[in-house]
Design a protein that fits this description.
alpha/beta, Spore Coat Polysaccharide Biosynthesis Protein SpsA, Chain A, 2 domains, 7-stranded mixed β-sheet, 13% strand
Length: 316
């Protein structure tokens, strides 16, 4: 594959006009000192503060700067997805625009991808300058993500990450999936995932753009990533197995009640007066519903245009 540069730096941003000039200058100093060819892709996620006008000025000064401006605020995942589509460097590095991610990390991240042959290298903000209202939920999410995905990273949500170009071309981001790019890469077949302790700096300008909704969206997106990664192409294996289990439990309990009523008669109650009867009935109904859900999901999957999209690593 022919790459146009050694690194593509994708920077999603929303109302970060105060930091862009300093960030661009800092990135350029680091890559030039380390003799790295580069491109910087700024994705303006519907800013209203003049960020786009500054990006246009930076483009006039530096031909390696590229920019896209969304009509409105779509979110970080949409910005990263568009940046990944445009990235043409051998190594793609993402970083936030608020100067909390240090460009000094760029050369080592590049080296770990190229020389150590990692597919993904995730930053770990071991020492953070965020309030406890942000750090505590982050630790909880990271623990849950490690348990569910089997990827033992300390900081899934760190914005500073490096990828092989083929990794970002093989995954699709939507919603708030930017938090779980390493699991998406793993389920796409890129299992060599590393981690690097990175410098985390206190926010210099503005305020955080993330609200309280991330506390709800984060766990839901994690469950979606894990489910789609394991059962996205075979939903019947999940719903069918769960439905069959529920139905067998319900039918077994109902069969026991029938035998007890016909031949043993231990209570003298009607079947409809026994709690076990309703438990058995609910289990059978739920079992049928789960099975039908899996059957319908299989029908939808078979008519999907992406049902036979498989990633090919090599061909001769």
């Amino acid at each position: 594959m022919n790459f146009q540069s050694q690194i593509s730096i994708v920077v999603p941003l929303y109302n970060e006009v105060e930091s862009l000039l300093e960030l661009h200058r800092w990135i350029k100093e680091v890559v030039l000192v380390n003799n790295l060819s580069y491109e910087i892709i700024f994705i303006d996620d519907g800013s209203k503060d003049g960020s786009w006008q500054l990006i246009e000025e930076l483009k006039q000064q530096d031909s390696n700067v590229h920019g896209i401006k969304f009509q409105r605020n779509y979110g970080k995942s949409a910005a990263l997805q568009k940046g990944f589509e445009l990235a043409s460097g051998r190594v793609v590095i993402t970083m936030d625009a608020d100067l909390q991610d240090s460009p000094e990390e760029l050369p080592e991240l590049y080296r770990m991808i190229v020389e150590d042959d990692f597919d993904v290298v995730s930053g770990w903000k071991k020492k953070r300058y965020d309030p406890i209202t942000k750090t505590f939920p982050t630790k909880l999410y990271n623990w849950a993500a490690r348990k569910l995905t089997g990827i033992y990273l300390h900081d899934f949500n760190c914005g500073l990450k490096a990828y092989k170009n083929e990794v970002v071309k093989s995954i699709e981001l939507y919603g708030d999936m930017h938090r779980y790019i390493p699991p998406l890469a793993k389920f796409a077949g890129f299992s060599k995932i590393g981690e690097k302790v990175v410098i985390h700096q206190a926010r210099k300008y503005g305020t955080t753009k993330f609200g309280m909704n991330r506390f709800l969206n984060g766990p839901l997106d994690l469950l979606s990533v894990v489910f789609m990664g394991k059962f996205g192409k075979k939903p019947m294996h999940f719903f069918g197995a769960l439905g069959a289990l529920m139905f067998v439990i319900g039918f077994g309990l109902f069969f026991y009640l029938a035998i007890d009523k016909l031949f043993i008669e231990t209570t003298g109650k009607l079947l409809a007066q026994r709690t076990e009867f309703f438990i058995a009935l609910v289990c059978m109904v739920l079992g049928v519903q789960f099975f039908l859900a899996g059957f319908i999901a299989e029908l939808i999957g078979r008519n999907s245009s992406t049902r036979n999209n498989y990633l090919i690593e090599k061909e001769i």
